[in-house]
């Protein structure tokens, strides 16, 4: 069972099939997924991918959490993940995706912060990583605001990325 989290403005709970339609709608916004590889243009593959990700067991303390406003608990803002890197591991990645209506309000940083503590204190991970498309400036800012350090440029899936890392040691 995954924990839930509350921040000053947000409520974060484990993602379930009840969030399927909201996640699907978010992913269908081309601006939301423009820096993220995925089956976004094939409806049946997209739905199967999303269903599999929602129902998967990623291991103790790992998974996806849906983000809602504390004052509007039915308003889906996006999600945060803490899962094995590329779904396989052994490293664990942190990631986030927000509806366009939630951009520019600090929700990404606020939503990701509890998962840094959860990764190190709750799950006992030695590090978390994030590979972010080199053009995705907003996600770079979030990674830096939660304490991650850019380790350099890489190519992942043929796409130029910036590789971020945060160790338990650096988090203290």
From TrEMBL:
<dbReference type="GO" id="GO:0016747">
    <property type="term" value="F:acyltransferase activity, transferring groups other than amino-acyl groups"/>
</dbReference>
<keyword id="KW-0808">Transferase</keyword>
<feature type="domain" description="N-acetyltransferase">
    <location>
        <begin position="10"/>
        <end position="166"/>
    </location>
</feature>
<dbReference type="InterPro" id="IPR016181">
    <property type="entry name" value="Acyl_CoA_acyltransferase"/>
</dbReference>
<dbReference type="InterPro" id="IPR000182">
    <property type="entry name" value="GNAT_dom"/>
</dbReference>
<dbReference type="Pfam" id="PF13302">
    <property type="entry name" value="Acetyltransf_3"/>
</dbReference>
<dbReference type="InterPro" id="IPR051531">
    <property type="entry name" value="N-acetyltransferase"/>
</dbReference>
<protein>
    <submittedName>
        <fullName>GNAT family acetyltransferase</fullName>
    </submittedName>
</protein>
């Amino acid at each position: 069972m995954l924990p839930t989290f509350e921040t000053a403005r947000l409520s974060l709970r484990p993602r379930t099939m009840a969030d399927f339609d909201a996640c699907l709608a978010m992913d269908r916004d081309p601006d939301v997924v423009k820096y993220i590889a995925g089956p976004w243009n094939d409806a049946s593959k997209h739905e199967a991918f999303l269903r599999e990700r929602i129902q998967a067991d990623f291991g103790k303390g790992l998974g996806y959490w849906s983000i809602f406003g504390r004052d509007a608990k039915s308003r889906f803002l996006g999600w945060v993940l803490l899962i094995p890197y590329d779904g396989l591991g052994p490293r664990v990645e942190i990631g986030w995706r927000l509806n366009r209506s939630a951009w520019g309000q600090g929700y990404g940083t606020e939503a990701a912060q509890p998962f840094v503590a959860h990764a190190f204190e709750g799950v006992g991970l030695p590090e978390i990583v994030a590979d972010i498309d080199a053009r995705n400036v907003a996600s770079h800012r979030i990674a830096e605001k939660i304490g991650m350090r850019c380790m350099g440029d890489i190519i992942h899936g043929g796409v130029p990325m910036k590789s971020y890392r945060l160790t338990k040691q650096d988090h203290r």
